[in-house]
Amino acid sequence: MSKKKGLPIRIHLVIISIVIFILPVLIGGTVLYIQTSSEFEKHIENHLMEQAKLVSQMVEQEYLNYSREILGKESGQSYVEQMYKSKIMDYLEKVEIGERGYIFILDSEGHYVLSEDRVRDGELIIDSLDEDGRFFIREMVENAQELGRGEVRLISYPWRNTKDQPRQEKMAAYTYQDAWGWVIGVSVVMDDYAGGIETIRLFSLAVAVVFILLAIVVATLVGRAYSRPISQLEDIIKQIGSGDLTHKEDLKSSIREINKMSMDFQEQLVEGMRGMLLR
Question: What does pTM read for this prediction?
């Protein structure tokens, strides 16, 4: 019965080397993508919160201007207040936030003071439900009144403007202006940032492909380097097995060389893994 011939030792070594070198690349690429995506989302959150703070500071400054103007006046306060509020609304409705974002203001009862394009100003929306059935407006109004001066809170919610329109994942940063009892918020559609996330994905994929190709080249070279002394050892063992004992010293030398290469490979592998983990 003929003995089934397996793959050459060099092929075995190349395959093992490829697995050893590519596995860290795949793990590292996955970690890189997750970390970069997380940092990008964090950047969106921070940017949104900064915008909410700026809008709040602008409203606060206008309120201070209003307070100075009515100081000592016994009449006309309501007119002056309305004038300042109208000035704020006229300015904020023109501010663009990304592609489809906008600034909104709610009063303490959940009425729109400032809505997108001003089409719902004055409307009571306290009982509005998001796509998951959550009273997200009520949640914002209640949580906002617990915020200190300059504090900002984030909320994410799924939304659909009409039944015919697709579901959108939205995020809002909001703060509270105590004097007028306003919840001041900045809302964006997360899909508007999908291009940035897709760029990160493609970049991570490109980096992974480059490193995988390099890993294959390195693994092939390593496999060839390690297969040579092993092939020599096989030849020496065959010769000794056939009765030629003149190769005993060659056998010892080959074993020492293989042991040394094995130790070097282990050290390089450990150092490589340690470096990847430290990064």
Answer: 0.63
